[in-house]
Amino acid sequence: MSELLGALDQGTTSTRFIVMHSHGGIVAKAQREHRQIYPRPGWVEHDAAEIWRNAQAVIEATLAEAKVSARDLSAVGVTNQRETTVLWDAATGAPLHNAIVWMDTRTQAAVDRIAAQGLGDLVRAKTGLPLATYFSALKLGWLFDEIPGARERAAQGAALFGTIDSWIIWNLTGGPSGGRHLIDATNASRTQLMTLETLQWDQELLRIFDIPAACLPKICSSSEVYGECVGALAGAPLAGALGDQHAALLGQACVNVGDAKNTYGTGCFLLMNVGESPRISTKGLLTTLAYQLGDAKPCYALEGSIAIAGALVQWLRDNLGIIKESREIEALARSVPDNGDVYFVPAFSGLFAPRWRGDARGIIAGLTRFSNKGHIARAALEAAAFQTREVLAAMIADAGVEISALKVDGGMAGSDLLMQFQADLIDAPVVRPSQLELTAVGAAYAAGLAVGVYKSLDDIAAHTRESRRFTPHMTPQERARLIASWEKAVERSLGWAI
Ligand SMILES: Nc1ncnc2c1ncn2[C@@H]1O[C@H](COP(=O)(O)OP(=O)(O)O)[C@@H](O)[C@H]1O
Ligand SMILES: O=P(O)(O)OC[C@H](O)CO
Fold first, then answer.
1. What is the best residue among 266, 308, 439 to mutate for testing ligand 2's pocket, by most ligand atoms within 8 Å of CB?
2. pTM
3. Is this complex scored with an ipTM above 0.95?
4. pLDDT tens digits for 335-345?
5. I need a surface site. Which of 29, 92, 237, 417 has the fewest CB within 10 A?
């Protein structure tokens, strides 16, 4: 018999809540965007209080649409944009500063300083992550350096650190009145403060990044009962939490070694399940925790992280105004037969995997009097596919496995033009599921597993459904020509920010 599950997906651009049947069908959902705050070039912030207000609003709206109460939900899961760093007052629940978002580059000087101390290899060996502006530890260090007295208050446990899952879980379970200060192990694996092998905070890393242990949340598995919700979800057991990319991996049922998925959201994140031992990449990929489900052995993944994908579509919408809604990019891109030799390298936050070049900045290359906004739209869509191809090549080389087909999800995977171009570029089928909300679905699966709605991962795998398969048609010569031009454009984006 089908049971109802809930999941809150707190993403980079919006927050949504879904109610779904345990067989995977979505009953109702509501979504709300939050403000993107850009105080300086390269800086990106969110108001964590606004995010919490939006979370409550979408929960209420979804329950009303589904005509159910929180007590009808067998369990609720949370999934979130990762790395984004919140520091808040334990007594009042007020954030001490805007949250610093994962794509923010303000910590580049700190990256360079720690690299100059020769600590990069040690940090990577312990955490699976390169030194980069992307991860939480340096963002938290920046907050401690900039907010007077914050480090001292944190050392007394009066100021609490969390990624967005922690912030939401603390608030959902009571906030200042007894809220649970937790982080799930997948999110903890993105802080650069946790040892990947042991899934514990690492004392040496805490010293390197100058972080007092008292402000850190307790690390929990991704699937267990963390507590009972209060407020809009009163009475529902909170039982699942994963970073959004890990949730999508579970939502796509990538539960066997070699299974991979690519999620096209604000950024683009390709994860491959590599099984029960973490393997450190030699090709510029991250090693990360895939998930840890209750007492079961943890499962690890290799990840290729691309900072800007759908965000480029939003940039064309918000900063240039050449489209009014994201989905309009498809028609604009189809108004031209090809990219007209225009390439858009969206290195707005430097380049992430596999290059890790903090000094790169965005460029549009190949413009002539012939170029028009259709070519720019097409180049913007194609940029996600070129970056994915590069990450996939690194992953195949690193993991030593071939990929028979690429599973995709996320808002931007709605673009048929992009999905066809992706299949052409990687010369392998791209498989789109019947619905793209697999991040939220994955968090609901984790919650359902914890309370026995699902007995095993096989139960989950039975619910994934393919809806469309894009097969490659491009000639090898055309593919090689396009890739060579893209690489020429990438070379020109490097070394801009120094
Ligand atoms: N039809 C579409 N074509 C291209 N891009 C799209 C389309 N629909 C949504 N997007 C882009 O996808 C992103 C939203 O996807 P989503 O998975 O909700 O992201 P996130 O979880 O990062 O907020 C936005 O950046 C948006 O511009
Ligand atoms: O919010 P998304 O879907 O763009 O995902 C953001 C990632 O978790 C950042 O690491």
1. 266
2. 0.94
3. yes
4. 999 999 999 99
5. 92
